[in-house]
Amino acid sequence: VTKSEKQLLDHNRVYYKLLRKLAVAGQASGELTKAMSAGDIVRYYAFCERALIYDWCLVGGEYALTERAAQMMPFFLKRIENNE
After folding, report:
1. Over 80: is that where the pLDDT of 45 sits?
2. Is 64 helix (H, G, I), strand (E, B) or coil?
């Protein structure tokens, strides 16, 4: 439950804390790039996720969000993969 629009961007929310743990773990395991900070990875991922949801809302849900996410997220996630 949010109290304002800005609360969705509050990095103290459980959502962001979980994403940060995942980003740090991914960097430690070598799955995610270390060329970006964990904070930058979290911001990038959250941006991509919001973009998908926003587009889906703009078109009135005319396509299956899960199918579009399965199609687009691998493209977005290439940016944060460890390519060494």
Report:
1. yes
2. coil
